[in-house]
Amino acid sequence: MRLYDYPDCPFAQKVRIVLAEKELEYETVFVDLRKGEQRTAEFLKLNPYGRVPVLIDEEVVVYDSTLINEYLEDEYPHPALMPEDSAGKARVRTLEDFCDNSFLPSAGFVQAELGKPEDDQDAERLQRYRKGLSDGLVRLESFLTGREFLATEFSLADIAFVPAVMNLARLGVEVDPRLRNVHAWIGRLRQRPSIAALNL
Ligand SMILES: N[C@@H](CCC(=O)N[C@@H](CS)C(=O)NCC(=O)O)C(=O)O
Fold first, then answer.
1. So what's the architecture of 86-196 in CATH?
2. How far does the centroid of ligand 1 lie from the alpha carbon of residue 78, in Å?
3. Does the reported pTM lie above 0.85?
């Protein structure tokens, strides 16, 4: 198995956690995004959107982190990272969608703003996206009521949030101490070897 990867990419990190949880061996191909290697004709044949991660498993080429993780779950079901029942699966997918389309993009916008020279940073934009992350944490607090993880067991839903939640301090977002479920959940996530190995 081969993973086209970029170390700081949160989407690639999601896939690396799943590969580690399932103890799958793979080779990493570093795609230097700063040099534009994602736009070479060779790479675009793998992913026409020109983005990492891409996974190749024998003849199968999969791109988009959430789809790669679904593929890995289908093909290598042990240990399971998806509930067996339809309601549980729907819950995991709803949370992955919330992460991919709201939480991770907000984190990306904050990161992009902080990457600019201070004088060029847009304070209003920074505040808006930081608030997006804080509001997202409040939503997670209620999803975590009475649970250790976002679904019944540790799942693809928890994994989706790891890159962003482990980066909140660097983004200037404090987890409100009143969000006790979220605090406990982040502590549990940090203890997993698959997540600790990322050194986030
Ligand atoms: N929805 C995609 C997003 C992947 C993505 O945006 N990857 C970024 C790096 S974190 C990328 O390859 N960017 C290169 C570019 O847009 O030129 C996924 O989940 O895999």
1. Up-down Bundle (1.20)
2. 27
3. yes
